[in-house]
Amino acid sequence: MSIDLLIDGLPNYAKDLKLNYSTLVRQNNELTAQQLWGTVVASAIAARNGELTEAALQEAAKHLTPQALEAAKTAAAIMGMNNIYYRFLHLTSNEKYGTLPARLRMNGMRTHGVDHIDFELWALAVSAINGCGKCVDSHEKVVREKGITEESILAIVRVASVLHAIGAVLDAERVVKAEPVAV
């Protein structure tokens, strides 16, 4: 199913998500096409909803090069791992963990082959979805130092928040439509 049909088919209680999606994605003027569609892909993957991810990948393939599409998926994969690890370091009171090496492979952070700023923006979007303050701080600082404005950063985070909420609604609707389990 196309992402537009998926969004248009959201239930009435998610009307604000439809409107926000339209404003942020269909009428975007704050981000480049690569920044926007890479964020859609990375955010859909981070939202963990198969239907949304499939639709996002299908639509993004029309707007991204194969290399950029792969890089957005790489950002989601690496940050899915890093966000858990670094969120743990942030949450634990045992400071020794922060002195030990992570020993997690992150080669994709260097070998993605797209604009470094775009990759960092996608990592920031996924980190916001996954609630990792340490990673949000790190990626936000990098993109600001590279000249990205706070307005563009918030545009990325708005896209991530709407995609995440759409994934949650789709999950809820799947549960509502499911047959009751016999006990």
TrEMBL record:
It catalyses: N(6)-[(R)-dihydrolipoyl]-L-lysyl-[lipoyl-carrier protein] + a hydroperoxide = N(6)-[(R)-lipoyl]-L-lysyl-[lipoyl-carrier protein] + an alcohol + H2O. The active site is at C132, C135. The keyword Disulfide bond applies. GO terms for biological process: cell redox homeostasis; response to oxidative stress. Keywords: Antioxidant, Disulfide bond, Oxidoreductase, Peroxidase, Redox-active center. Residues 100-177 form the Carboxymuconolactone decarboxylase-like domain. Pfam families: CMD. Coiled coil: none annotated. Its EC number is 1.11.1.28. Disulfide bonds join C132-C135. GO terms for molecular function: disulfide oxidoreductase activity; hydroperoxide reductase activity; peroxiredoxin activity. Belongs to the AhpD family. Antioxidant protein with alkyl hydroperoxidase activity. Required for the reduction of the AhpC active site cysteine residues and for the regeneration of the AhpC enzyme activity. This is Alkyl hydroperoxide reductase AhpD. The gene is ahpD.
